[in-house]
Amino acid sequence: MHHFKYLFISFFLFLVTKNHYAIAQTNQVTNDNSCKKFPVFVGKMGYDIAASAFSTTEKNKVGLMLLELARDKKNRAISTNQERQKVYQDATWKQFGYLSAITFDNKGNIYVLPTPFISLLQNKPWQMNRIMKVDTETGKMSVWMDLQADSTQTINNPYGLLSLTFDCTDLSIWTSSVYGSSRHSEIGTIYHIDATTKKIVDTLKNTDALSLAISTDEHNARRLYYGSARDGKIFSYLIDHNGALIRTSFRLETSLENIGIRGDDKPRKIRFVNGVMVVTGKSFNYNLEATSDKIESTYRFVWGQATNRWILQSIE
After folding, report:
1. What is the CATH number of the domain that holds 257?
2. Burial label, 30 (beta-carbon count in 10 A; 0-12, 13-18, 19+)
3. Which strands sit side by side in the sheet containing 209-216, from one edge to the other?
């Protein structure tokens, strides 16, 4: 069994110049992030927006950090070794402890999740189902929504919300929680939330999702893809015109089980790049594990039109 210092809080570094925007084509699985914007306050602070990024995994730092990466003095290209030229943290960005998943909305507001790191000293168990928001204009962080769980947290599972994504189709947020689940009990929830009204559009209960992604499928139909926190499988549901999941459309997409160098990776992150499903896989066992290792692999799948299934293209 592999253990990781950062567990699943992998390098959540969001750089504007590295966003991937897929173009919808027939029989090609794509997603649309084109509505997402960078926060207004970053430009007001005089930062080089094209070289700016947000990170929740800066060494010896708690919370969210704004970085400006250095540029080469000759050709002005962004540093390939991700050298930091400027580092900024507002006082409100560290008051909620360690953070993980980040997403942006159509106005440049930032949404971010709390996630314990090594111990629970910085993150209170009863606060793990909160979504924080950084205002695009002021740059101040506050609690945006507290999703009260139906269950109680178990001693062997310190986690709550794990995954977060903004849906440009209907300007909504999808997030998933494993609050109260254990290795033997799956009682997590996937939430679909109207970002304007904070109304919960739909919930999928008894589901532990480690990762979420919204995309059109091979028939150009809108789907929610999610990676299971319990095994290496990736599942999906169709989304109807009201934003609800169509339960009868549930299907297994692919799996990371018994592939890769470890054979037990879970889908920590899913994204679609020009028709390729890119999955970041690593171990997840519902508990805090602290060693010096941080091991992950990248799996790339392409949709086979002839076979009507995902085909593993590469593992890195």
Report:
1. 2.120.10
2. middle
3. 209-216, 222-228, 233-239, 245-255
Tell me whether residue 8 is in a domain. Answer: no
Q: What is the Cα–Cα distance from 150 to 134, expressed in whole angstroms?
A: 27
How distant, in Å, are the alpha carbons of 89, 135, 140, 315 from that of 92?
8, 11, 6, 39
Q: Assess contact for 136 and 100: CB atoms under 8 A.
A: no
CB-CB neighbours of 2 under 10 Å: 16
Res 68 pLDDT > 50: yes
Contact 39, 95 (CB under 8 A): no
SS3 label, residue 92: helix
d(CA 202, CA 290): 35
Task: Note whether residue 56 is domain-resident.
Answer: yes
The number of domains in the chain is 1
Query: Quick check: helix, strand or coil at residue 175?
Result: strand
Spatial CB neighbours of 201, under 8 Å, sequence gap ≥ 6: 172, 192, 193, 194, 242, 243, 244
Q: Is residue 3 part of a domain?
A: no
pLDDT at 27 over 70: no
Question: Could you give the 3-state DSSP secondary structure of residue 51?
Answer: helix
Going 226 to 228 to 234 to 235, the CA torsion angle's sign is negative
Within a domain: 4: no
* Containing structural domain, residue 77: 14-315
Looking at residue 28, its pLDDT comes to: 56
- Lowest-confidence pick of 126-135, 281-290, 302-311: 281-290
